[in-house]
Automatic annotation (TrEMBL):
Protein name listed in UniProt: non-reducing end alpha-L-arabinofuranosidase
GO biological process: L-arabinose metabolic process
Catalyzed chemical reaction(s): Hydrolysis of terminal non-reducing alpha-L-arabinofuranoside residues in alpha-L-arabinosides
Entry's EC annotation: 3.2.1.55
Entry keyword Oxidoreductase: no
Family, as annotated: Belongs to the glycosyl hydrolase 51 family.
Taxonomic source organism: Xylanibacter ruminicola (Prevotella ruminicola)
Classification via InterPro entries: Alpha-L-AF_C, ASD1_cat, BT_3657-like_N, GH, Glyco_hydro_beta-prop_sf, Glycosyl_Hydrolase_51
Molecular function GO labels: alpha-L-arabinofuranosidase activity
Alphabetical keyword list: Hydrolase, Signal
Any matching Pfam family: ASD1_dom
Cleavable signal peptide: none
Residues of the Alpha-L-arabinofuranosidase C-terminal domain: 660-828
Hydrolase listed as a keyword: yes
Amino acid sequence: MKRIIRLGMTGLLVVVVIAIHAQETKQVFIYSPSERAGLHIAQQTETGWKELGQLCSSDYGTWGAEKRMYHPSVARANDGSWRLVFQVNDKSPLFAAAYSKDLVSWRPQDYPIMTTSQCLQPTVFANENGSFDIYFKTKGGEKRWVSASNDFRRFSKDEKSLIDDVAWTRDTAMVNGLSVDGCLFELSAAEMGVITDYFNRLAQDGKQSQERMYEDAKNFPDLQPVEAVLTITNQEKTISDKLIGIFFEDISYAADGGLYGELIQNRDFEYVPKDHRGWKATTAWSASKPINVVQVDPLSKNNPRYAVLGNDTIYNEGWDGIAVNAGEKYDFSMFVRNYNAKKSFIIQLVDSNDVVLAKATLKTEGSDWKKYDAVLTAKRSCTKARLAVIGVKGIKAGIDMVSLFPQETFMHRKNGLRKDLAQVIADLKPKFVRFPGGCMSHGQGLENIYHWNHTIGPLQDRKPDFNIWGYHQTRGLGFFEFFQFCEDIGAEPLPVLAAGVPCQNSNNNRDGIGGQQGGIPMDQMPAYIQELLNLIEWANGDPTTSKWAKMRADAGHPAPFNLKYLGIGNEDIISTVFEERYEMICRAIREKYPEIKICGTVGPFHAPSADYLEGWDFSKKHSDLQYMVDEHYYESTGWFMHHRDYYDNYDRHMPKVYLGEYAASTPEKRPNVETALAEALYLTDIERNGDVVEMTSYAPMLAKDGHRNWDPDMIYFSNTEVCPTPAYETQRLFSVNSGDRYVATSLSGIPLQLKHRIAASMVRDSKTGKKYLKLVNALPVELTISLNGLMIPEGTLAEGFDGQPEEQSVEVKSFEVKGEKIVLPPYAFRVIRL
Ligand code: AHR
């Protein structure tokens, strides 16, 4: 309760608020109901403790095994702000530490590394001077002390402590019938207001997020066709001309076995169990006798293993078989070193009955590694052929880098891309390509961070590595090939590389440290930063003066690739470890290459997540560092439909937005008409906010049948088929009908409760003068739009799709439109070219 006293003083009304402390405060209990439940808050009521909700969860380590919170301890600082520490497991030399101003938004967690291998039951106390004392125990029962700075970002080295056990005394409460340990606090009414508002907003958001189109019959039982008026103005603003691009990540076999044209699996005999449990150097190969793999005098130090072939045939099964087409030519190559005189090999493609589909002979000589080529022409088509390498009598030879490419690659590039898949991507006319991925970029632990320079040069010298998604990366599709693909399809390259920290979901390393693993040690950061600078030099430099640019020229591209954008970090936890490294990297790039537009990151989730808030806070404070920041959110269709104003109030003077990963989903996961329409609705609002949103990319883009790590994806494929989804059609229609000017329009006459289901957006391409009007009807009834300020001339074409929400494929059709009215059937998306 507040007593408000109004005093009249020299004509001014002064409002004095006297807080009557005792009556106003509420008792709260902060605790964790169980190890995976995170930090909760309960409020004292007349009938006992009532749970209000979850304040934050644990972000530590990998999904599944970690993300646990034990013994949370909360302290209140002199200024009323909060500090939290908790134990993450019983084996790692660290604990979690977080900061909050109001108990509801927490700064992303830091994990200070201690000298002991366990940090059990950390407990925190606020000191008068603003610092904090943290005590924890080890498994042997030793007590240790560490001091934390007021901002809770700096932690002293831990020391032995003699503090009494009483420091670990906790309060107990019965919440939801469970007796739990925790911390008791008194909060003011204002503080309680912030907390209850927060939970109310979350609840409201949760409810809206559950809205599903295929429950419309239940939710809109008597809905009649809707009529609306679209007023088109002559007001325009400049918007980004790069709104729709693509996100390429080697996930779900998108690279090897996918877009990369190589048909031989494990061509270099480098598969190891680290790639995938049970995998070894001979995985995907077979022979009648055990295959001898050795490492003596290898072809390359980066490719130490190779097979030694005697009088035997070894077969490669390809990626779930090798699909070949009758009459097509295939380029075969392999490196050979003979142990005895000149020898020949027979190379065949055979079907499952060992019937020969194609054949070539290879004559080899010399004991040094040498590359041999042959062309195989398929006599018949087969979807599951195998490659046979047959050593003729008396042979003993080492073989490595056994490779088979269709001659028909995309744009006939050598070491090229699978044509049909690349063509579907090219048809999207993406304005940029982000690569080499999301989590794969920052990697599974520090050792697995993606190093772009390991992916260029001769194939045998590239450094293969395991993939965070549970398989192997040959790096045959490396940075040269990515840049070349961008050039081939007229898209800007947008490489995204680690900010000196690995994926926050990384497994424990050998020291038992998971998550960001403390980041690349500071003494190694200069070398890492140099590696990033070398990329810019490699892409844009002059081959006559730069050794990195010369590598590009030697690979066949003397002209610069004209790199303009560089992403640093991928949805990292915006911890102190991240911020320090990110800032160092950006400063170095800005100093040497001020023309490069840096893209930062604001974590894996939208507002009001901790990383989003801290990420934006940091980016705004350091707005000179980056041109834009990368936002990610995978959400329900309901969420997208109810957050269409997401960018309306973004500060236009701050870094721009790259919505680098997003997708709408339903519980069925596969893209369908419902998800495609939710995305279309949202993209009309992105166009409207195209002055602050610079780029967007749906994610993930590719997924191979039988090897999916993630759903939904934009394009599914097998060895023989490419299946673009409704999500693809939405992306394509927005991309090929884009402009650089937004024409203001307004829709009227729509009942309030239906507004989130209808959208219109008009853009103009200032180069061609063409206008594109996009209309979305995500309602179960027909929508008639009367145009105010526009008369569509006869012969005008519209393109689009419609269907039932749960349909997983759509047919994009053309329609003729004219006059002043447009009728959209239920669940429809149309683009009208004017
Ligand atoms: O797009 C799939 C994954 O989602 C990306 O690797 C990662 O950045 C995000 O979590």
